Structure formats: C-alpha cells, structure tokens
Recover the amino acids of this structure.
C-alpha cells in the first residue's frame, strides 16, 4: 500500500486531534446541560403551591447585606409576560450555592415569584458574592416558566459596583439598554435595591 507523504499524514493527524477535542468539548457541554436541566427539575419540586408577586429567596437570618430585586419580565414583543413564574437563585455571601459545591447542581438560596399584569415581581434576599478564587462577578440567575408550561433561560443580572465586572460587560450592557445585565445598585439604609428587566427569548427555550 502506498504511504501518504509525511506532510499529508501530519495534516490528517491534526484534523483528527481537532475533531477529538471538539467532540470531547461537546460531550462535556451536553452532560452539563443534562445535569443543569435535572437540577432545575429537582428544584421545581420545592416550588410552593401558591406563588406570589413578592417572594423571599434568602430566609430570615441569612447572613449578608439585605437586597431587594425589583424585576419586570416581558414577552419577545415587549408586552408584559403576565403570570409568568420567575425562578431565581444565587450564591450566598461566601460565593457558594449549597455550602459544599460537590456533585450535582444544588441551589440553597432560591425562590419563585409570579409576574403581575404589568410583568412585575420582587425578590427579597441577601447580596450574593463571587465564586471563591475566580474572576466571575457576583450574579443572580433567572429561569422563566410561561403559563403555557414552556420554560426559558431568562438571563442573569450583575452589579455595577462589582470590581469584577469587566469593561466589555459594561459596554455590552449599555448597548442592551433596559435589558442590560449589569445593573445599578441603589442603597437605602441597610438595604440595597436593584431594578432590572428580563425578556423571554424563544431561542432560550429548554
């Protein structure tokens, strides 16, 4: 059998290595997605039978700076997403989700609020902290459950006074306008207030 030139063999090997790396990355991503979806479904088993417009994420006595999240959620056309249930979760003041961070996703600080006719909802909680030892800004995650039963990734918010927020993130938020992820923090007494708007995106259905 005729041997291929060395240069051709090297190119073939490089292509195989690239393909293997991409395939491995996709497998990891798919596994993480499956794990995340399973975690969301587990969390929903704890959803209260009645979900109010105002809800609490952090229990009374949870250490940290008190924070109130004033949210609004809209449909793709910009109209209020009334009766949508918004699921939120975040880390504690130590940057941890469940205290151990071992095994499957688990979120201790989480809550559910139902958007009113104007699409508004409120969460009372404590300010989250960044992940320990990492350069990711503190943030709050949101998932939207439409009255139809469909669920959507609804994005996250970050805080403009967080030094870990990059200039690129700040510029992207300026371009996003009212849907910006990086939000101003307003302080009243010992409580911080953050206002934000989420938008349901059909492409984020899962």
């Amino acid at each position: 059998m005729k041997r291929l030139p060395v240069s051709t063999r090297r190119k073939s090997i490089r292509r195989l290595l690239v393909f293997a790396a991409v395939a491995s990355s996709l497998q990891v991503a798919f596994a993480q997605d499956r794990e995340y979806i399973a975690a969301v479904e587990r969390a929903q088993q704890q959803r209260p039978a009645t979900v109010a417009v105002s809800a609490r994420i952090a229990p009374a006595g949870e250490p940290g700076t008190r924070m109130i999240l004033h949210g609004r959620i809209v449909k793709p056309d910009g109209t209020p997403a009334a009766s949508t249930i918004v699921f939120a979760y975040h880390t504690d003041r130590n940057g941890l989700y469940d205290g151990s961070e071992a095994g499957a996703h688990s979120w201790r600080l989480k809550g559910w609020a139902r958007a009113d006719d104007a699409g508004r909802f409120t969460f009372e909680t404590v300010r989250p902290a960044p992940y320990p030892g990492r350069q990711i800004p503190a943030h709050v995650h949101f998932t939207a459950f439409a009255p139809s039963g469909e669920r959507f990734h609804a994005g996250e918010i970050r805080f403009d006074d967080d030094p870990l927020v990059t200039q690129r993130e700040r510029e992207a938020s300026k371009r996003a306008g009212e849907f910006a992820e990086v939000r101003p923090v307003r302080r009243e007494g010992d409580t911080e207030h953050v206002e934000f708007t989420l938008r349901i995106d059909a492409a984020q259905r899962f």
